[in-house]
Structure of Large ribosomal subunit protein uL23:
Amino acid sequence: MEFLKKPILTEKASALTEKSNRFTFKVEHKANKLQIKAAVEKMYGVNVVAINTMVVNGKLKSRNTKGGLVSGRSPKYKKAVVTLKDGETIDYYSNI
């Protein structure tokens, strides 16, 4: 089972990477910290120091249609913030 879905490449995540050598990933909802650590170390060949996980609730979305206002939510997802050993980095674009 593949636990890493994709990296999160937002301004906030980029600032976290530059400031404190931490990288963010969208992960499988049932994955635990040990599985995420093993997947990151295997895929990128780095040493993981710490992992923080969180479940991000989806944003409320609404739009106007011919039938009236339609409202709903975008799906929730699990996010992992991975702290690497000093001097190591992850190049997201090397695996493409």
Remarks:
- The CA atoms of residues 7 and 93 lie 10 Å apart.
- The two ends are 20 Å apart (CA to CA).
